[in-house]
């Protein structure tokens, strides 16, 4: 055992569990790739000011949860706590918005970091797949992203997740609501920190998960009652497009997101089997974020889905993904000549696209066959001195137990034919 363990609130992804995480990432990414989204990868750390401006200087993420540090050269950096600001920064830096093909549609996958109280479903290091459509104000884009996330979850077999939908208004109508909400919050029995938050960004108080706060918000004014005509029309079109696609959702007039940059459409994917950490992902429109970080006006929309929480949702529904075996053929040499020949055959199999492995370490037949069983391989090739003298190897079907002799020079073609 090592002297060191993974830092508190983090985890290691190791086989066989890592195969499930990879399958979830692929399932979420697949509909994005089929819809014109290109892959983008950004650094694991950014200028701390990027998140202070984009996420919000007074948010819990920036004030309490961000891993910030200063380099020897004096640069103030932070491990990325979320993906949207980084992806938008990368798109602006590369001038993708000037190529004349808006929206710029990007997807990404990676690890993110927040200093939070560790619990099931909430870690200090977590994995997400995200998507951003940059540079277009169109209800169809908002609907597209919600539909693609729904498609991804259903492809995994998830059935009991819910989609919550709301509109946060825009710069025209939200200030009126903000004033009304602040007036309401000032009359509640809230602690000083929450009251201070209400003065800076009162919408964030609605996102406070503490029961002592939530029970006082029953009569809070609702944003939908303050939406301007343009925001009402925009939101209604999003709803109509989602409905026409056969995607079920719930209107949640109190839904807000924990980041300051959201405008108009906001949505969340929740799974009730996860308890208090029921959100598996979410997103929305962020029409002003580009200007917040020094770019031009670029209305945009996006989401991020948690890989960790999606895996927990699968477990809650008792879903086991059908994962392909990492190894299709396992080679067991008995003797030095067999070792040389079978190693060459394993290399040939890999070159033609067949997943093959080899019994390393000079194990005897019994130990090597145990390894073959553990590998999950469909076929095992066994060869000893007598087999090679006859110009054959023994090919064993690990499912049926049937064993046949196949010519050494024909074994690769035989396995190609059997494995299709």
Automatic annotation (TrEMBL):
GO annotation terms (biological process): histidyl-tRNA aminoacylation
A Pfam family it matches: HGTP_anticodon
Name assigned to this protein: Histidine--tRNA ligase
Keywords for the protein's UniProt record, in alphabetical order: Aminoacyl-tRNA synthetase, ATP-binding, Cytoplasm, Ligase, Nucleotide-binding, Protein biosynthesis
HAMAP family: His_tRNA_synth
Organism whose genome encodes this protein: Streptomyces lincolnensis
PROSITE patterns in the record: AA_TRNA_LIGASE_II
Enzyme class: ligase
């Amino acid at each position: 055992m090592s002297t060191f363990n993974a830092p508190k609130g983090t985890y290691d992804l190791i086989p066989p569990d890592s195969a499930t995480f990879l399958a979830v990432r692929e399932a979420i990414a697949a509909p994005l790739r089929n819809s014109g989204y290109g892959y983008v990868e950004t650094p694991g750390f950014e200028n701390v000011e990027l998140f202070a401006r984009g996420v919000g200087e007074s948010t819990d993420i920036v004030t309490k949860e961000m891993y910030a540090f200063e380099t020897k050269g004096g640069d103030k950096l932070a491990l990325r706590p979320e993906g949207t600001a980084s992806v938008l920064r990368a798109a602006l830096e590369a001038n993708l918005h000037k190529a004349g093909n808006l929206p710029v549609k990007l997807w990404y996958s990676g690890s993110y970091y927040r200093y939070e109280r560790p619990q099931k479903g909430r870690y200090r290091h977590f994995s997400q797949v995200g998507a951003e459509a940059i540079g277009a104000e169109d209800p169809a884009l908002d609907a597209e992203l919600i539909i693609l996330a729904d498609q991804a979850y259903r492809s995994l077999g998830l059935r009991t997740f819910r989609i919550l939908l709301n509109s946060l208004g825009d710069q025209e109508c939200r200030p009126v609501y903000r004033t009304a909400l602040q007036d309401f919050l000032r009359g509640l029995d809230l602690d000083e920190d929450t009251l201070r938050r209400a003065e800076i960004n009162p919408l964030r108080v609605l996102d406070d998960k503490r029961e002592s706060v939530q029970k006082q918000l029953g009569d809070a004014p609702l944003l939908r009652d303050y939406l301007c005509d343009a925001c009402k029309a925009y939101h209604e079109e999003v709803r109509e497009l989602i409905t026409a696609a056969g995607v079920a959702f719930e209107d949640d007039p109190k839904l807000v997101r924990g980041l300051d940059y959201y405008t108009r459409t906001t949505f969340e994917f929740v799974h009730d089997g996860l308890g208090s950490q029921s959100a598996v992902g979410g997103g929305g429109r962020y029409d002003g974020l580009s200007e917040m970080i020094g770019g031009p006006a670029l209305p945009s929309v996006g989401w991020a889905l948690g890989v960790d929480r999606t895996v927990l949702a699968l477990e809650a529904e008792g879903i086991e993904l059908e994962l392909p075996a990492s190894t299709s053929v396992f080679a067991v040499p008995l003797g030095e000549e067999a070792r040389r020949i079978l190693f060459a055959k394993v290399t040939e199999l890999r070159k033609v696209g067949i997943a093959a492995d080899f019994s390393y370490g000079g194990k005897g037949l019994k130990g090597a066959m145990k390894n073959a069983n553990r590998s999950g391989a469909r076929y095992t090739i066994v060869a000893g001195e007598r087999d090679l003298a006859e110009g054959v190897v023994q090919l064993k079907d690990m499912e049926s137990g049937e064993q046949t002799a196949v010519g050494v020079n024909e074994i690769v073609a035989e396995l190609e034919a059997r494995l299709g």
